[in-house]
Design brief:
With 230 residues, this protein is mostly helical. It has 7 helices and 2 strands; from the N terminus they run ααβααβααα. The protein is globular.
Length: 230
């Protein structure tokens, strides 16, 4: 069991290495261009550029979570991985990925803020609503990214197991609920209440929900096959 889990973790890590490098290459290139533009715009009126690293890494994690169900699970099963080892390995992989991405992105932001003091560029982060420290940013990003990975992995399993109709139905229901929430106003009220009572406890709760959702994925993973073509 231990050897198979280590083998699966090695496979997951090496499999996303190419996407990982491409992502950071694009992100660093974009950041470099933005920094150059910020220096150029120093003496141009009140122009100010806003840059956020968190949104980019959140989106990356969303894609990884969804594609894991479609691409990595079938291959793992083909090479003989058990469902239990897959479940354990993916949980460790998702948590590790969230931690690494949070450390890298927030360390990069810290370096940029310390080395380049440019008034025309500003980094924004959800932690600014609380205590805007490096540790707080890392904790927030880790919890949010693990939650996103769990949600998108579960969604990917639905598409993989039940096809476009099954997964699309779930997405459709979610969209309808959101639209109803906006139309009836309760969603806006909920967002306002969350904002007014914002604390680190909210992000701990988000992490807990992510753990629960990942646990739910076992219901689909335990019976999944490589011949799901519905």
């Amino acid at each position: 069991m231990g050897k198979q889990i280590r083998g699966l973790l090695y496979f997951f890590t090496t499999d996303i290495r190419h996407a990982f490098i491409i992502f950071w290459t694009i992100l660093l290139s974009t950041l470099s261009v933005s920094l150059i533009a910020a220096y150029v715009l120093i003496n141009v009126g009140e122009t100010k550029m806003i840059f956020t690293l968190s949104i980019a890494v959140y989106i990356f994690c969303g894609f990884i979570g969804f594609l894991t169900a479609k691409e990595r699970i079938p291959f793992s099963i083909k090479v003989g991985a058990t469902r239990k080892n897959l479940f354990v390995s993916l949980g460790i992989f998702f948590l590790g990925l969230a931690i690494v991405k949070a450390l890298l992105s927030n360390t990069l932001q810290l370096i940029m803020e310390r080395m380049f003091h440019v008034e025309t560029i500003a980094f924004i982060h959800p932690a600014q609503l609380l205590t805007n420290s490096w540790l707080t940013r890392v904790l927030i990003d880790t919890t949010v990214m693990f939650f996103i990975l769990s949600v998108m992995f579960l969604l990917g399993l639905l598409f993989y197991k039940y096809g476009l109709f099954g997964g699309g139905s779930v997405v459709g229901v979610a969209v309808i609920v959101l639209l109803l929430g906006l139309a009836q106003g309760w969603l806006v009220d909920l967002i306002i209440d969350v904002y007014q009572s914002l604390s680190m406890m909210l992000f701990y709760q988000i992490f807990f929900i992510g753990v629960v959702l990942y646990g739910v994925s076992w219901m689909f993973l335990r019976r999944i096959t490589i011949a799901n073509t519905k």
